[in-house]
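Hey, I'm writing a tutorial for new members on how sequence and structure tokens pair up, and I'd like a real worked example in the thread rather than a made-up one. If someone can provide the structure for the chain below, I'll link this post from the tutorial.
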Amino acid sequence: MNGQTEIINKALQIDIFGFSGMVTNKDYVATGFRLMDKMWQIVKSNSLKNKGLNIWVYEHGEKLFAGVELDESPKAELGLEQKSVTLTRYASYKHIGPYKLINEAGERMIAELRRQGFETTLPYIEIYGHWNADETKLETELLMSLKDD
């Protein structure tokens, strides 16, 4: 791994707006991009001020939510779903490099956490940093919920 996994015992609350969907054929990437593209179309066409970071929330039952933090709640008629996620205890790891290696980094993260005696649970969150054409500089924060002792 190219960084260190940090255990955080302080609650994290994220409020995001976007869309949720069922993952078909275990293709999380295609599902995430479909949901994210739909969300960005509404955010951009309505000039909604946002933090510009894509946030994917992986949930039980093959559900995925793709959203973004907005500066203020949008009008309901825009159709964006709101998702509030609270992680009470979690592990954080910053992946630096190509997106195609995120899954591998996540698997290594889970293995390392297990070696340390932690058990992960859902939701699992990926926060994608700002775009960089040099994919070796792409930053993605991986946040894994940890089961309480």
